[in-house]
Sequence to fold (76 residues):
Amino acid sequence: MIRSRACPTCGTMQEFRRLDDKERAAVRAAKGDRHFVNDLWRCTAVGCLTYFRAGNLGDRDLLPETFRKEEAAAEE
Ligand SMILES: [Zn+2]
Fold:
């Protein structure tokens, strides 16, 4: 599933997808085991780490640097 939203980091409309298992685990590690991560969406733009909670664009943060997509990796 993809949602189109205005990304505050990119400053443009971007496609967002749900966090995958690794991303959810990383958010839990950063925010605590009780942090609810099942409705988080991330920006799919190259180099963007922004994620937000479904229905609440104001509840957002950045994924760890290890999840940053490099420009070269996107040119498959
Ligand atoms: Zn973005």
